[in-house]
Design brief:
313 residues, alpha/beta, Rossmann fold, 2 domains, seven-stranded mixed β-sheet, 29% helix, globular, magnesium
């Protein structure tokens, strides 16, 4: 018997509604109707206002803190399961709580694995996400995970800048693999920053491994939170003779004093995606949409086609 491919339906969690609309438009569909009722104490209840029985649905929502974003995704998945959806794909442009992917000291949780198990327990049958903080998080799932690379968005933009003496930089040792992949694609040099932290979000010391004199430097990272690391690295590189310093970061968390740090730094430009909504508080922040990437992958998943090309850096 031939496989009958039914209509796919796309829904979005509250904070990802704008991105969801972009993805749905690129997919060639309308964003599904979900109504969220909120109680006076803050408890909320999402409700699908159309039949999803027997269909494949995509639920779009980044799970960055606060916890209500993750909770809404879990409730949306659970509601879809109880409404007899055939396939439930959780589309998480940003997979939150991913920095807790291991025990780095005694008596702490591994939150990334807990989140993975919660998504599966709620009823997700597939996960689509982008630029995980650590690749091994894929192994926390028993369901299929499509881990996409934002390099397919950033590389064309970097090439369009046509920067002479281009050098790719990693703001820390952990990002060196990502930096080397970009440098290979762009045929450029690589430098690495070595940093020591006093505590989370606080850098006590930073050193530069490599030469940036006379170079146009592009820092590469998976996320930008307070922007402390990026701005400190940019200032250090300008002190060492760099001509310019830009940064590309997939996920713009931008918490705390992030915008002040960016505006007061020597960063020429911070290029991010819209995996998380960005506040227009800095002219230095340029947003590239990830909607086309997700729409293309979702269409291929729905039609049972290969998506291996989207895994190539």
């Amino acid at each position: 018997m031939p496989i009958v491919i039914t209509e796919a339906k796309i829904f979005a969690c509250t904070q990802s509604k704008i991105l969801g609309e972009k993805i749905a438009k690129a997919f060639g569909a309308e964003l599904g109707n979900v109504i969220t009722s909120t109680y006076s104490d803050g408890e909320f209840q999402p409700s699908y206002e159309e039949s999803i029985r027997g269909t494949r649905i995509f639920i779009i929502g980044s799970t960055n803190p606060g916890p209500e974003n993750l909770m809404e995704m879990l409730l949306m998945i659970d509601a879809a399961k109880r409404a007899s959806a055939r396939h439930i794909t959780a589309v998480l442009p940003y997979f939150g709580w991913a920095r807790q992917d291991r025990k780095d000291k005694p008596r702490v949780p591994i939150a990334a694995k807990l989140v993975a198990k919660m998504l599966e327990a709620a009823g997700a049958t597939r996960i689509i996400t982008m630029d995980l903080h650590a690749d091994q998080i894929q192994g926390f799932f028993e369901k299929p995970v499509d881990h996409l690379f934002a390099s397919t968005i950033f590389l064309p933009y970097l090439r369009s800048l046509d920067l002479p003496n281009l050098t790719i930089a990693s703001p820390d040792m952990g990002g060196s693999k990502r930096a080397y992949a970009y440098s290979k694609a762009l045929q450029s040099d690589v430098v690495i920053c070595y940093k020591q932290r006093a505590k989370a979000n606080v850098i006590s010391h930073m050193e530069l491994i490599g030469n940036v004199e006379g170079k146009n430097v592009v820092l590469v990272d998976d996320m930008v939170d307070t922007a402390g690391t990026l701005t400190k690295a940019a200032d250090l590189m300008m002190e060492r003779g760099a001509l310019s310093v830009r940064a590309i970061c997939t996920h713009p968390i931008l918490s705390g004093k992030a915008y002040d740090n960016i505006n007061n730094s020597k960063l020429e430009e911070l290029i991010v995606t819209d995996s998380i909504p960005v506040k227009p508080l800095s002219d230095k922040v340029k947003v590239l949409t990830c909607s086309n990437l997700f729409a293309q992958v979702m269409e291929k998943v729905h039609n049972n086609q290969s998506i291996s090309s989207k895994f190539v850096m």
